[in-house]
Amino acid sequence: MLGNDHSLFFSDPTQDPIVVAIAAPAEGYRKVLVMTKKEDRRFIVPDIQGYLRAIKAACPALDGIKLNQITIPGMSEKISEIERKLIVRRHKLGVLYAKAGQKEEKAFLHNIDTSPEFEHFLELLGDKIELKDWKHYRAGLDIKSGVHGTHSIYTTLHDLEIMFHVCTLMPYRDDDPQQIERKKHIGNDVVVLIFKERSGPDDVIDLSTFVSQFNHVFFCVSPVIPSDFPTTTSKTATTSSKTPITTSKTPTTITTSSSTCQYRVSIAHKPAVSAYPPQLSPTSPPAIYEHGPEFSHFLLTKLINSERAAMESPHFFGNLVKTRRMLLSDVIAEANNS
């Protein structure tokens, strides 16, 4: 965030909204923040005469932009507030349970009973919390009357809050063949994790059955069961021409242990979603992830980064640009009218 030692430059109100914050020199360099309608860029330039030219040379977005330096008390705080608004620190992620032989979203939404393996896996995602009067991030879940169930899974990662929409923790309605309340939440999640009870040839998920404009990334996690893999041949999630999906897989080498639970992880995403870290194991044959804190941290990090990557895809990016343009235009208008 900005301090009072920053010099602030604003684009002309008739041009694309851009704010440039330049820190006071330190050890021969100046830190620079350039905020445009598409992104924030941070870099350093030498503290030399004509450093503004160096800044424009380092940032093509400034080509042809007229910058006006305006000094107004409290403006640095307002720029910092824009930064805070644009940084997403709360995330909601969907979780579905797939019984052996189930392949379609509709079947997953109708599951009520789960398994000890699934309940054990949920411990990796976070704590089972009571929703009644919950004080932290609730991701749209009701915390008064129990409309969305009595419990959910919640955790934090660094300074981020994560709430999971766990389908089987939400109420099931016998008179609703579509399970609209469950679908309403999970269908609006950008990232959906599917826990598959089995991963044999008869358990390949048909992602074309997921009807949602928001679902962009699918994680498939399944416990390692040697009988599911009579050979080392791998199966990928099915796709259709209607919804092309790019898949990234872990290997299927089976290394079992009587004292640990192990998981296979595969990921499918729409083509517009760029790659994101941490990468799944590139070893061949593929690695197996063991239940424990290391896998928990890896999985949560991968889930959050996948959502961030999806939000930069064309489906979502236009709304982000509109928001950034509005916030920057407002502060530039205020600076010019003060």
Which key features would you list for this structure?
9-stranded mixed β-sheet, 14 strands, 338 residues, single chain, alpha+beta
Give a quick summary of the entry:
This protein has 338 residues and is of the alpha+beta class. Helices cover 25% and strands 24% of the residues.
Tell me what you see in this structure.
The chain has about 350 residues and is α+β, with helices and mostly antiparallel strands. Helix content is about 25%, strand content about 25%. It is built from seven helices and 14 strands. The chain has helices at about 50-60, 75-85, 105-110, 115-125, 180-185, 295-310, 315-335; strands at about 5-10, 20, 30-35, 40-45, 65-70, 90-100, 125-130, 150-155, 160-165, 190-195, 215-225, 245-250, 260-270, 290. Strands 6, 7, 8, 9, 10, 11, 12, 13 and 14 form a nine-stranded mixed β-sheet that branches. The protein has a five-stranded antiparallel β-sheet with strand order 4-3-2-1-5, sandwiched between helices. Helix 2 packs antiparallel against helix 7. The longest helix is centred in the C-terminal third of the chain and has 24 residues, at about 315-335. The radius of gyration is 24 Å and the shape is elongated.
Cα gyration radius (Å): 24 Å
Distance between the termini: 23 Å
Mean pLDDT: 87
Number of helices: 7
Q: Portion of residues in helices?
A: 25-40%
Structural class based on helices, strands and sheet pairing = alpha+beta
Q: Name the overall outline.
A: elongated
Strand % is 15-25%
Main beta sheet strand tally, sense and closure = 9 strands, mixed
Low-confidence stretches: 228-259
Order of helices and strands: EEEEHEHEHHEEEHEEEEEHH
- List how many beta strands DSSP finds: 14
